[in-house]
Amino acid sequence: MPVIDVQNITGKQISQVELADDVFNVPVKSSVLHEVVTMQLANRRSGTAAVKHRSDVRGSGKKLFRQKGTGRARRGNIKSPLLRGGGVVFGPDQRDYSYKPPKKVRKLALKMALSSKLRENELMVLDQFKLDEIKTKKFVDVLKVLKLDNALIVTDKHNDHLELSSRNVPDVKVLRNEGLNVYDILKHRMLVLLEPAVKNIEGRLLT
Asked: Regarding beta strands 123-126 and 190-194, do their DSSP bridges make them parallel or antiparallel, or are they unpaired?
């Protein structure tokens, strides 16, 4: 089992914690990570782009002029795509881009993302991240002490002071362990786990 140091918010080592091999020591395959990240980005697409086709345009169905003898296009009614304000022929329609790979693949990708952070020494474990008040400056001061500028901080439970103090800091995100995902892990340079969150993550991925 890999062992990692546990620090406090002053950067001092206070203990160590063992990490489960089946979660933090898994062979990494970029194809699996790519599949799950692509799925997450596809699921975020709104898919609301749409146009009005000929049948969707409001207007009279009366033929504007006779079919033959005028030398003009036989365009039909006022909803014709040939006219301004008429229907659009090959425009986009509203659609759903979301899809889901198998649950085993999604779980494996999360293990691989965590393993890659440990392997590249981009994983940090804190005993707690306690702030006495909602204050962005105090949060930034802690980041400076820990030498963090691009980090994903994973907590074990709702922490109002931490979440509200961090929301205006660029390149830093605070996430609860149940929302942990592959895209956010790989997007941020450092992964910071609170010690109680480690056991929660292992419990979630080992079931």
From this structure: parallel
Which regions of 24-165 does DSSP assign to beta strands (E)? 123-126, 151-155
| Per-residue tokens: 196 | 């109680």
Edge-to-edge strand ranges of the sheet holding 190-194: 13-18, 3-7, 123-126, 190-194, 151-155, 172-176
CB 158 within 8 A of CB 117: no
The CATH number of 3-45+99-205, from 3.40.1190.10, 3.40.47.10, 1.10.340.30, 3.40.1370.10, is: 3.40.1370.10
Residue boundaries of the structural domains of the chain: 3-45+99-205, 48-96
**What is the reported pTM?**
0.84
pLDDT in single tens digits along all 207 residues of the chain: 888 989 998 888 999 999 999 999 999 999 999 999 999 999 999 999 999 999 999 999 999 999 999 999 888 899 999 999 999 999 999 999 999 999 999 999 999 999 999 999 999 999 989 898 999 999 999 999 999 999 999 999 888 999 999 999 999 999 999 999 999 999 999 999 999 999 999 998 987
